[in-house]
């Protein structure tokens, strides 16, 4: 059944949850560009009819709705935002710079994030192997950050927004699951984490640490039930 979309809906709406790292990157991009939007926080255990209508393929958040038209998948949304609102660009002008930012965004979503998530959800050897793979991946990140404040250079760009979840969640994963990224082996990553999380726009939207710990503790217990 098609849900009627009221005319009074604001021009830009963002379906997300309070904790989703994929949603946070979109919020940060909108804020960096000064775009007013209405946030709709979904309950993923009881998804709204609108969310299912807007993202019937994946049924996931985030979904950006611009003038009633939905756009899904956070990396696609970031590109849409960049092309629609040109101010404060999050991608450089040159094709190589653009390609690099997209490469790192893809690397994060397809390689780094799945390894860390796997380490969080698995046990024993599988956990060790996944964390080993994550730490290997982070060596490439460390290398990429050489001589730079942000992935994008002097200012926050698309790749920084995509890696932003690291700044948000590494301490949570350490606290909940004992997954430690050894600071001494990744000094540039550590400096980036601090620089990124202290940026006023980023600080302005930052899921509370204590609330994240409670959420991920519950998830951890679900993946690792007491035997
Ligand atoms: N590739 C997607 C991932 C989005 C995603 O995994 N969202 C999660 C919340 S963090 C979700 O909506 N999960 C609901 C579900 O899987 O049913 C993106 O980049 O937007």
Explain what you see.
It is found in: Cytoplasm, Cytosol. GO terms for molecular function: glutathione transferase activity. The structure is a single chain. By secondary structure, the chain is of the alpha+beta class. It folds into 2 domains: about 10-85, Glutaredoxin (3-Layer(aba) Sandwich), CATH 3.40.30; about 95-225, Up-down Bundle (Glutathione S-transferase Yfyf (Class Pi), Chain A, domain 2). The chain has helices at about 20-30, 50-55, 75-85, 95-120, 125-145, 160-175, 185-200, 200-205, 210-225; strands at about 10-15, 40, 65, 70. The chain has a 4-stranded mixed beta sheet with strand order 2-1-3-4, covered by helices on one side. Helix 1 links the parallel strand 1 and strand 2. Helix 6 (about 160-175) crosses helix 7 (about 185-200). The longest helix is centred in the middle third of the chain and has 27 residues, at about 95-120. The chain is globular, with a radius of gyration of 18 Å. Bound molecules: glutathione. Glutathione binds next to helix 3.
């Amino acid at each position: 059944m098609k849900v009627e979309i009221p005319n009074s809906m604001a021009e830009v709406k963002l379906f997300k949850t309070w904790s989703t790292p994929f949603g946070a990157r979109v919020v940060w991009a909108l804020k960096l560009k000064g775009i007013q939007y209405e946030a709709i926080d979904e309950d993923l255990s009881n998804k709204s009819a609108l969310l299912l209508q807007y993202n019937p393929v994946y049924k996931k958040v985030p979904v950006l709705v611009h003038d009633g038209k939905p756009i899904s998948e956070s990396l696609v949304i970031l590109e849409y935002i960049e092309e629609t609102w040109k101010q404060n660009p999050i991608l450089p002008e040159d094709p190589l710079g653009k390609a690099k930012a997209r490469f790192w965004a893809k690397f994060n979503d397809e390689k780094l994030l799945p390894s860390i998530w796997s380490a969080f959800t698995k046990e024993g050897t599988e956990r060790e192997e996944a964390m080993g793979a994550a730490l290997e991946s982070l060596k490439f990140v460390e290398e990429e950050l050489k001589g730079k404040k942000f992935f994008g250079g002097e200012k926050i760009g698309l790749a920084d927004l995509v890696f932003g979840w690291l700044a948000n969640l590494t301490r949570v994963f350490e606290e909940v699951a004992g997954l430690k990224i050894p600071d001494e082996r990744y000094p540039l990553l550590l400096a980036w984490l601090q620089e990124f999380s202290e940026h006023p726009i980023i600080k302005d939207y930052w899921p509370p640490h204590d609330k994240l710990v409670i959420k991920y503790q519950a998830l951890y217990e679900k993946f690792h039930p007491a035997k």
